[in-house]
Design goal:
- The complex is a heterodimer of chains A (161) and B (68).
- By secondary structure, chain A is mostly helical.
- Chain A has one domain.
- Chain A is built from four helices and no strands.
- Chain A is elongated and about 75 Å long.
- Chain A starts with a helix and ends with a helix.
- Chain B is mainly alpha-helical and 68 residues long.
- Chain B has a single domain, classed as lambda repressor-like DNA-binding domains (434 Repressor (Amino-terminal Domain), Orthogonal Bundle), CATH 1.10.260.
- In chain B, 54% of the residues lie in helices and 9% in strands.
- Chain B is built from five helices and two strands, in the order βαααααβ.
- A two-stranded antiparallel ribbon of chain B has the order 1-2.
- The chains are: A mainly alpha (161), B mainly alpha (68).
- Chains A and B meet through loops of A and helix 3 of B.
Chain lengths: 161, 68
């Protein structure tokens, strides 16, 4: 039964695997383009987009790594996969605040250097986009904790012949 | 554990190697070796059924209860 289940899981994950690779490549390319735009002075908004691109690339890389681990270990319940899920949760939670904060900081430093009145606007923290991404990270964190329980069950199942 | 598995004795009586039994019951050598040495927590009815079929024995022939 286990062999059939893992065979089906591997087959189902194949589409996700190739989609993740395609999105990762496009995400990396967009990140580079936004970075170039930011460096060439086409607006600070490009820095925010670059940060989102980098965060997406990290999350997608971890997802691809997880799918490869599932194929290698023949089970999704391993400590390594749980740790990667926790890492994804951390990156998602950080990406809810960091890109906007970084952009605000860059704008702030720019204004200070130009001797203009400057202050950091923290309104983005309570923006619906920020809260949504933060909730998403928390949900992934909860799923990773459920996977920790799954790892224990897997170990128990493996010790039955 | 008070339950002792007598798989080694049954295999010796039938002159069957671990590899041969593992192949016949569709189990990995490592798992069967762990079962033989009592490192496993339990055994599924499915596995027990396959072992009994191959070794032509009863489940009771494979296990023994001893007082701690």
């Amino acid at each position: 039964m286990k062999k059939e289940a893992i065979k089906k899981l591997n087959k189902d994950l194949e589409i996700e695997y190739f989609c993740s690779i395609a999105v990762l490549i496009s995400s990396l390319l967009y990140s580079i383009l936004y970075l170039i735009d930011f460096i060439s002075g086409k607006g600070n908004d490009n820095l925010t987009k670059f940060c989102y691109g980098v965060a997406s690339s990290i999350v997608l890389s971890l997802l691809i790594w997880i799918i490869r681990d599932v194929k290698k270990n023949d089970t999704p319940f391993t400590t390594s996969i749980t740790n990667k899920l926790k890492a994804i949760a951390g990156v998602v939670i950080l990406s809810s605040v960091l890109p906007d904060l970084l952009t605000e900081l860059v704008v702030f430093v720019g204004k200070v250097n130009a001797d203009l009145p400057a202050e950091i606007d923290f309104d983005f923290v309570f923006a619906s986009k920020t809260l949504f991404i933060c909730w998403l990270g928390i949900i992934i964190g909860i799923i990773s904790e459920i996977f920790t329980y799954g790892v224990k069950l897997q170990e128990d199942s493996d010790s039955i012949a | 554990m008070s339950i002792i598995i007598r798989l080694d004795r049954m295999m010796a009586d039938r002159k069957m190697s671990l590899n041969e039994l593992a192949e016949k019951v569709d189990m990995s050598n490592v798992n069967l070796s762990n079962l033989k040495t009592g490192k496993m927590k339990g055994i599924r009815f499915e596995t027990l059924n396959a072992i009994c079929k191959v070794l032509e024995c009863q489940p009771g022939d494979l296990f023994e209860y001893v007082e701690d």
